[in-house]
Amino acid sequence: MQNIDKNFKFGLKLWSTNKNYIKAAEELYDKGVFHYIEIYSIPNSLDQIDVWKKLTIPFIIHAPHYGHNVNLAKKEQKESNMKHLEEALKFANILNAEDIIFHPGIAGDIQETVKQINELNDERIIIENKPYFIEKDNSICNGATFEEIQFVLNNTNVNFCLDIGHAICAANALKIDRLDFIKQLLKLKPKMFHLTDNEIDSIYDKHFHFGAGSLPIKKILKLLPQNIIITVETYKDYENKLDDFQKDLFFLKGI
Length: 255
Known about the structure:
Blueprint (H helix, E strand, L loop, with lengths): L3 H4 E8 L6 H9 L5 E5 L8 H5 L5 E4 L15 H17 L5 E3 L7 H11 L4 E4 L17 H9 L4 E5 H11 L3 H9 L5 E4 L21 H7 L4 E5 L10 H12 L1
Parallel strand pairs: 1-2, 1-8, 2-3, 3-4, 4-5, 5-6, 6-7, 7-8
């Protein structure tokens, strides 16, 4: 099997308001435990940027999504979308982030998603695949199928983030083979990946620690190409420690 430490660069997922984890993150980064921070830019939190600017850690930005009332698939939300997404672009500018991850939207039109992405016209944008359903109200996600992600990639200048957990949830909802679906999405040449654990048959996205769910993590890692970056999006159990994140990385590296 491929050497996990050699071929993967691991990222820590935090929110822009997570100042409470900065000290722990610096310590783990200095020890070489992970390689970058992926920051989810919560709307109206640009005033928090100074605490992140002080770090020497590389950044990837994750733009706000449906959970913070951003929905690229809805024309009627375009004005508010642009306000929050432009703030995410400012996070990327100030932190010298080369990539900004977007969700395609919920219960809307994938063509509208393309229109709004093209209006932003930023080559740093990366589109992320989604589960088929969201647990809150069973709304259908845009970007859950191969065809919709391919449509976005073919009609914009963006790259692709393959979220493994989202892909498995979508495959379960679509009643197709999970690993075959991941292989299909790999044909779209993802620039980066997201990974957590979950129950193997679930249609809803979870962020379990590795080993707490039943995903075939070892089989999944074998499918992935070499020299990739992968953000670990597992839950945080502590308010100011990242011991659980470090344990998750040890799990991956120990496979």
